[in-house]
Amino acid sequence: MTSLVLENVGVTYPLFELRNVSLKGSIAKAVGGALSSSSKSTNVQSLSDISVELKEGDRIGILGHNGAGKTTFLKVCAGILEPTSGYISVEGSTASLTDITMGMDPEVSGYENIIRRGVFMGLNRKEARDLIPPVREFSELGDYLELPMRTYSTGMYLRLAFAVSTTIVPDILIMDELIGAGDASFIEKAQQRMNSLLEDANIIILASHSMDLLRQVCDKGMLLQGGQCRFQGPIDEAIEIYLESLAK
């Protein structure tokens, strides 16, 4: 049974010997959370005491202002970032689409990058190599896959990253907005792939600034503010509270 549980999870970034107050504030705003200081360092509490229990069928939308801790929360759920306090338990495979190019190297070929991205997503090298035929077909890049990715246009680069990242259907799908795939001619095909992923994943965690998208995809909502959970419940209530906070 697919599940994801966070109990009292916190994430703290230490900013060692950083004395510039303005710079401290800028970093705190970028990663979210609040500043605290000791004699040796300044710390940013990006997440504090976050608890959530997701089971099969749950679709949760993550809301909050920029710097509220949404990205940190997604990285913790994906296993990219280890919490500094609390407990996390994951049952099932996960795929994070928060950065679909993570693990790829522009200096090596498209073929090698299919394998690299696949391994980064948790596959062994044989499983990653098995992705090559379906990724080649979906990306429509043909012989370009033999070339280093630094020779690709931005659209080609994104198409390959998208094709690899969405070929596997995970139990738990983690996303930061809906991702595009570059070229206009490819958008409809990419949208169909995304719709299929959204339908087939057992659990979806989606951070977005689009209220329409959150209502369309999610049934639950979590509002983060300053790295803390301000509200957790039905998505419509979460959106209402979030919009009220924007008006203040």
Description:
The protein folds into 2 domains: 3-92 and 207-247, Rossmann fold (3-Layer(aba) Sandwich), CATH 3.40.50; 110-201, no CATH class. The protein has helices spanning 21-31, 70-78, 110-120, 125-129, 132-139, 154-167, 184-200, 211-217, 235-247, and strands spanning 3-16, 34-37, 41-55, 59-63, 85-91, 94-96, 172-176, 203-207, 220-225, 228-234. It is globular, with a radius of gyration of 19 Å. The relative contact order is 0.18. It contains 9 helices and 10 strands. The mean pLDDT is 88. The strands form 2 sheets. Strands 6-7-8-4-9-10 form a 6-stranded mixed sheet, with helices on both faces. The protein has 248 residues and is of the alpha/beta class. The N and C termini lie far apart (42 Å). Strand 9 and strand 10 (228-234) form a beta hairpin.
Entry summary:
Helix content is 38%, strand content 29%. With 248 residues, it is α/β, with parallel strands linked by helices.
